[in-house]
Amino acid sequence: MTKKETEPTYEEMIAELREIAKKLDDPNTPIEDAVKLHQRGMELIRKCEMFLQKAELTITEVPQPSDGQ
């Protein structure tokens, strides 16, 4: 299996976070489920933050002009 097959995209993680938020807002969600959803949400938030940090580093890395140009 490749990394692409196992790791969700940023957009997929955000979509899952939205679903988690909806379920946490539902007063009928059992407390046990809410705790698990909260834990999963925190895990996704950490992954999203790491993705954004890597993206920021990639974007801010400006290639240095070579002496020949």
From TrEMBL:
GO terms (BP aspect): DNA catabolic process
Protein name, entry field: Exodeoxyribonuclease 7 small subunit
Keyword Hydrolase (UniProt): yes
Enzyme Commission number(s) from the entry: 3.1.11.6
EC top class named in words: hydrolase
Gene Ontology MF terms in the entry: exodeoxyribonuclease VII activity
GO CC annotations on file: cytosol; exodeoxyribonuclease VII complex
